[in-house]
Amino acid sequence: MNAEIPPQTPVKASFSGEGAVIYLIGTAGHPNYGDELITATWLRYLAEELPDAEVWLDTPRPGQAAVLLGGLHPGLRTVDTLYHACWNAPRRDPDETLEFGAQVVEDPGLIPREATGVEDLARVDLVHILGGGYINRLWPDYLALVGAARAVGNKYGAGVALTGAGLTPLVEGSDVAMSKLLADFDVVDVRDEPSEAAFASNVPQLTMSGDDALLGLDNPKVFGTEGATPTMLCLQSDLLEVPLEVLADYVVRTLRSWGVDQDPVTLVECLPPSDTKVVALLQPHLPQLDVLPFSALWRAGFPAAPGQRWLSTRFHPHLLAAAAGAWGVALPISQGYYRTKHDSLIQLGSGWRMATSFDDPLPPGEPPEKPFGGQLSQRQAEKRRVAGNVIELVRTTRN
């Protein structure tokens, strides 16, 4: 959070976005709670700032995204146009993947079934790659999104933004080409120090304001009470670098050492069905274990509350629970990806601790006096300044 964020230029009150075309790129619709939350946050923000705009969301699963996010902005449409550029991009070399995204904008015939959607990018005033950790070594084909976004800006004069991005672990050999492209973006904002360190020296406009979900934590629909118990879990089975049995055993031993293994415990499903595969391993040891499925979680809100204790492998439960005043332990099930994500929140002042191994359970912690050490409002203000700069791109383009 050390990077200086340019001051926000106030958006004229008379500008409602009428006639403006905004093209969002994200990963909503999987569903994965964090990705849905980030996209919902931006759609709500745009509904307040630019209610009359036409908003396109490019995502791998546009049908499910429409189900989950429909109604959050009156002008929302969902497509998967540029993801077809990713799925068809060469992957031998990251420079080729980045370049293919740009080539698709210049020659829509490269993905002929999506040509109509690509040609429609000529109408766009802003291309905005939403936050999250999906443009990195784990999903190298998504580099094409960066090339495509910059090409739309170059060819049609659209504003180009990337916010709240986690870009590490880097796709090997991608740093030079990525730096050149990002340096040509109008807004570049990342969420963690490794991403900042990778590009700050070559991308002078880069800022680090944290995860995009910070923009919408004040919305009353984010938090809920359904499923809330004093002890909460979120335990994934995807992207694990340890056996699921090891993770489950550590959780059981930890709750036993805390003296709460016989008490009510709720497991939150953020990514179905990945986050419920552990249930069969936990049930013999946690007799009052309950599951809050994703569908209920999405409709009812996130069940975080002050004083709760959490064990979570996932990033956004850590963020939201800490913001609500809960304490917990982050379980870094992958060193190069999830450890970076959890570290960013601990450095932000979440008050959580990181499990260093799955050998000895950590002792219980204490609820924080104030969420994020009283710094949460400052972090949210930084994110709002970044959002204001993104909105200003639309107004400037329209004028």
What do these coordinates show?
- This protein has 399 residues and is α/β, with parallel strands linked by helices.
- It has 2 domains: 21-217 and 378-398, Rossmann fold (3-Layer(aba) Sandwich); 231-374, Rossmann fold (3-Layer(aba) Sandwich).
- The protein has 14 helices and 13 strands.
- The chain has helices at 33-49, 62-69, 81-88, 94-106, 115-119, 143-156, 175-182, 193-199, 244-258, 279-282, 294-300, 315-324, 338-348, 376-398, and strands at 21-25, 54-58, 76-79, 126-129, 159-165, 187-190, 206-208, 231-234, 265-268, 289-292, 309-312, 327-330, 353-354.
- The strands form 2 sheets. It has a 7-stranded parallel sheet with strand order 3-2-1-4-5-6-7, with helices on both faces. The protein has a 6-stranded parallel sheet with strand order 10-9-8-11-12-13.
- α3 packs across α6.
- The radius of gyration is 21 Å and the shape is globular.
- The model is unreliable at 1-13 (pLDDT under 50).
Give structural attributes.
single chain, 399 residues, alpha/beta, Rossmann fold, 2 domains, seven-stranded parallel beta sheet, six-stranded parallel beta sheet, 14 helices, 38% helix, 14% strand
